[in-house]
Amino acid sequence: MDSSRGPASFTTQANALLRKNLCLQKRNLKTNIGITFFPILICVLLVVLQNIINNELDKPKYKCGCVCVEVGVDGRCARKQCGIQYSTLDQVASCPIPSPPRWPALIQVPRADFRAVRSSTQPFSDLPDPSCRDSWSCPATVLVTGKDPAIAEIISRRLFPALSPSLNATDFLDVLSKIVVGSDTQPWYAQLLEPAFSFGRTLVLGYDFLNTTEYGLGVNVWYNSTYNDNTAYSFIATLRVPRLVNAVSNAYLKSIKGTWGEMLLEYVKDMPKVGTSFRLDLSSLLSALFFTWIIELLFPVMLTYLVYEKQQKLRIMMRMHGLKDGPYWLISYSYFLTLSVVYMLFFVIFGTLIGLNFFRVNEYRVQFVFFFICINLQIATAFFAAIFFSSVRTATVIGYMYVFGSGLLGAFLFRLFVEDTTFPYGWILVMETVPGFSLYRGLYELGQYAFSGSTMGTSGMTWENLKDPINGMRDVLIIMSVEWALLLILAFYLDQTFMLGGGARKNPLSCFRCFKKKLTPSLHEPSFVQQDSKIILDMEKPDVVQERAVVEQLLIDPNANQAIICDNLRKVYPGRDGNPDKLAVRGLSLVLQKGQCFGMLGPNGAGKTSFINMMIGLVKPTSGTAYVHGMDINKLVMGDIDRERTSVLLWQIKKPQRCCISEGTSNLAVDDSLKSVNLFHGNVGDKKVQKYSGGMKRRLAVAISLIGDPKAVFMDEPSTGLDPASRNNLWNVVKEAKRDRAIILTTHSMEEAEVLCDRLGIFVDGGFQCLGNPKELKGRFGGTYIFTMTTAPEQEQEVEQLVRQLSPSANKIYHLSGTQKFELPKQEVKIAQVFQAVENAKSRLTIHAWGLVDTTLEDVFIKVARGAQAFNEFA
Ligand SMILES: Nc1ncnc2c1ncn2[C@@H]1O[C@H](COP(=O)(O)OP(=O)(O)OP(=O)(O)O)[C@@H](O)[C@H]1O
Predict the structure, then answer these.
(1) Which of 480-484, 616-620, 740-744 has the lowest mean pLDDT?
(2) What is the ipTM, given to two decimal places?
C-alpha cells in the first residue's frame, strides 16, 4: 500500500482481509468448538433417543402375544401361535384383527356452506363462486366406487336421478376403499347405499373433502388401519391428521383437474406399507425445532463478528488503510458463505452418516437449495442487524436469544396455526417473513415429508413435491430469496449511511447528493460559519487569532507545503440522561507543514482525543472541517476515503490490535516497516503480538501506521506506560518518521513534547491557550528562574530575606519544613549574583541543598492550564 505503488490490488486486499478473518476466527476458539459440537451433540442425541424408542417398541411386551403350541426335540418352541387372544393390553395394538368387520360404506356430501369454492388456497377456475354457499346451490362431486362398477352405477343413478344421463361411471379400484371419510353423512344416503355393502367395499368422497373435520378423518383412518392389520398406522393418523387431510385433499383437488384417480391411487397404494415399516422417527418429528437452532447458530457468530469490527473500530481502520467497500463486502460475504457452507455440509453429511432420516429420505437437491438460500438469508440478516448494535455483548445476547426464541416460538406458532387448515394462509405467509420462522417452516416441511417417506418406505420431499399446494416449501423458498436480496441491498445502503465500521454517520439522503449542490466548503472557499463565536473566543488569545488568520489565508490561497489545515473544528457531544451538551472542541484552527511534528499538551478531558478522532474520521465534527493533504475530513467520514488516496492513518496506540504477519507473506513494505521499528530481526515479526512487550506493541503500531507511506500521522499519547529505554527507542522511530510527513501527537509528557515537537499548543477546555515552539513558549510564559533552597526550618525567614534582596518581586511558590521554592523574574537577577549571595550566606545559614533552574515546559504548562481553567471557571 505504498503510495508510490498506488492502491492495493483486489487480490492484495482480499488476501489481507482473509487473513484478518482467519485470525479473528482462530481467536474465537470457544465459539468454534461450540458451533462444531452443537450439531454433533443434537444429531447424536436424536440417534440415541431413536434407538431407545426402537428397542422399547421391539420388546415382547409391545409385540403381539404368542404361545408355543409345539415344542421341538431340542426343547425349543418349534411352532407358536400369535394373536389378540394371547396378548396383554399393551400387545393388542400390534396384533392383526382375526376377522375384521367389513368396512362400512360412508358417504360424505358436505353441506353447501362447507363445499369448496374458489379461494386463495383453491384457486382453480372450475370451482364455483362463494355466493353459492348462501343459496345452497354449490355443486357437489360425489365419487362412488365399488368392486363392481355396475353396482356403483346403479347407486349413483338412484342417488342422483336427475343427473343420471351425465354421470360417468369409472372402474375404480377397490384399494380406494381404504380411504373413507365421513362426518356429515345423512341417514338416507346410508339406506340408498345399503345394497353396495353385500357386493364389496364402497368409497364415496365428498366434493368438499378439504373441509372435512380433521378428527373425523383421523378416526376413520384408525378403524381402517385396524381392518388392514396395520395398528401402528393409527398412530400416524392421530399424529399427522392435518398432513393426511392435506395430502388426500391435495390429491383430490388435483382430481378436479382431471387426474384425480391416479393421484389418489398413488397416495393410498402406499398405505399398507405403513404398519410394517413404522417407527416413531424422531429426526423428522423434532427436526424443525432442533435443526432451526443448529442452522441459526451461525447467526450470532456472524453478528458478533461484525459488531466486534464495529466496536473495535476495525472497519474504519481498514478503510483508512485503503480497504474499499467493494472488496470488504465481497470478501466478508464470501467468507461467511464459505463458513456456512462448510458448516451445513458437515451437518448434512454427519446427519446422513449417522442415519437420520431427515437427511437420507429427502432429496438432496431440495435440501441443498433450501439450505443454500437459508444461509444466504442468514448472512444478509447478520449484516443488516449489525447496523443496529454497537456493543458485542448486547449483539451476542440478542443473537442467541433470537436463535433459541425463533425456534421455540416457531414451534409454538406452527403447531397452533400452520397445522390448522382453517387458519388463513395469508397470515402464515406474513409469519414466514420473519427469517427464523421461514427457516422453521422449511424444516418442518422437510421433516413432514421425511416422516411420510420413512414411515411409508417412499422418498421424502422431491423436486416435484414443491408443486404440491400443501407443501409450504415453495413459498418459503420464494419468501427467503426475496428477503435475501432485499436485506442485502438494505444492509449495504445502511452500511454506507451509518458506517458499519463505526465512525460518523452519513446523511441518509446522501445517495442523492450528486443532484445537490455541494454543501461542504471547498478548500478554496473559506468557511464563515460561526464566525461570531470564533471572534469572541479568540479575543484574548493572540496566538489563536493569528493561527486562524493564517488558516483563512491558506484556504483562499492554498500552499502545497501545508499538510494539515484545521478550519474552526468544533465538537459538541449531545447530553444524555438529562446532562447538558458537552463542548469538547471549540473552534480549533491549526496549520501544520510537511516534516513538522505538532504536540498537543492538555490536561485530562481537554478534548485532545476528540480532536484526533475527528481528524481520523472516527467522529464527525459538529461544525468546521479539516484538510489533510487537501482532502476534506468530512468526506472521510462520509465514506469517500476509498475514493481518494488515503493519507491519514490511525495509530491506535492505546489498544494495539493483534495482527498476523508470517514470513511467507511479508511483503517489502511490511519488512521495511518492521525494520524501521526494530522488530524485523530475530524473527520478532513472526511472533504473536500477544507475546510482545508494551514497548514492542507500540513500536509495532508505529510500523503499521507507517505502511502505505501516510502523509499525516496522528498519535494519541504514544509513549504512555513505556520504560525510559523503550520510550527513547520509540522517539527515535518517530523522529525518523516525521521527516517527510506531518505528525500530530497528544501527550502528557513534557519531555516527549520537547524532544519530538517542532510546535506545541497548550489545549485547555476544548481550545488552544497558546501556540509556539517549546523555547518560545518557555520564554514567553516562563520568564523566571526557579530558586530552591533547603535549610533548617527556623532559618526559613532568613532565606526569604536573602531572596528578596536578590529579587524584590520574587514569588514564593512552595515551602515545606525548610525547603522553599521561589520564582525570580529573569530581568531582576543575574545568575552570578545568586551564586555569590548563596556563597556568602553559607557562613550564617545551614544550607543542606540549593539550586537554580530555568523554567521548564512543565512549569509553563501548569501555569497556562491553571490560568485558563481559573478563567473558565470564573467566566
Ligand atoms: N462520546 C462522548 N460523549 C460525550 N462526552 C464525551 C465523549 N467523548 C468524550 N467526551 C467528553 O469530552 C471531553 C473531552 O474528552 P477527550 O477524551 O477528548 O479528552 P482528552 O483531552 O483526550 O482527555 P485525556 O487526556 O484524559 O485522554 C471530556 O469531558 C469527555 O468526558
Answers:
(1) 616-620
(2) 0.96
Sketch out the chain's domains with CATH numbers. Answer: 62-92 (no CATH), 112-228+231-271 (no CATH), 281-498 (no CATH), 531-647+710-775 (3.40.50.300), 783-854 (3.30.70)
State which of 573, 577, 601 you would mutate to test the pocket of ligand 1, scoring each by most atoms of that ligand within 8 A of its C-beta: 573
Length of the chain: 875
- Give the predicted TM-score (pTM) of the model: 0.55
* Mean pLDDT, the chain, whole residue set: 71
Dist CA 600 CA 748 (whole Å): 9
Per mean pLDDT, which range of 91-105, 194-208, 371-385, 553-567 is the poorest?
A: 194-208
pLDDT value at 501 more than 80:
no
Contact, 414 vs 388, CB < 8 A?
Answer: no
- CA torsion angle for 426, 429, 433, 437 (degrees, to 10)? 130
Atom of ligand 1 nearest to the CA of 619: 1
CA of 720 to the centre of ligand 1 (A): 17
Percent of the chain with pLDDT over 90: 11
Residues with CB under 6 A from ligand 1: 573, 582, 584, 602, 604-610
219 band by pLDDT with thresholds 50, 70 and 90: very low
Gap between the Cα atoms of 844 and 384, Å rounded: 83
Q: Could you tell me which of 688, 687, 749, 668 has the C-alpha nearest to residue 715?
A: 749
**How far, in Å, is the centroid of ligand 1 from the Cα of 164?**
93
